[in-house]
Amino acid sequence: QVQLVESGGGTVQTGESLRLFCTASGRTIDLGAMGWFRQAPGKEREFVAAINWSGSSTYYADSAKGRFTISRDNVKHTMNLQMNSLKPEDTAVYYCNAKWNSMNFWGKGTLVTVSS
Fold first, then answer.
1. DSSP of 9-64, one letter per residue?
2. How far lies 16's CA from each of 12, 36, 57, 69, in Å?
3. Does residue 60 have a pLDDT over 90?
4. What is the percent of the chain with per-residue pLDDT over 70, rounded to a whole number?
5. Which of 115, 107, 113 is nearest to 21 (CA)?
6. pLDDT at position 101, please?
């Protein structure tokens, strides 16, 4: 099994930046693609960004392109999401996701609040 713990959430103002962290533990050998999802109040969980196992390919939702950058460190078993130019509509709980052995694992989330 894989355990994921997110951190780095908080409250910022519009236009500011925030960096989210996801730390994986457990069976981290052969950890596959990882990603970030978010869920705003009253809305469904949505995709934000993803990165393949080697870090050579990244994918972003249209809302994140140009503002967010995903990265990972397979030695430290961590994944980061650098979020710049934050907007109030980025307010959500952000969840870390990882694929391992054809299974999906989720963290418990970290809250990001962007005030106008």
1. -EEEETT--EEEEEEEEES-TT---EEEEEE-TTS--EEEEEE-TTSS-EEE-TTT
2. 6, 19, 26, 15
3. yes
4. 100
5. 107
6. 87
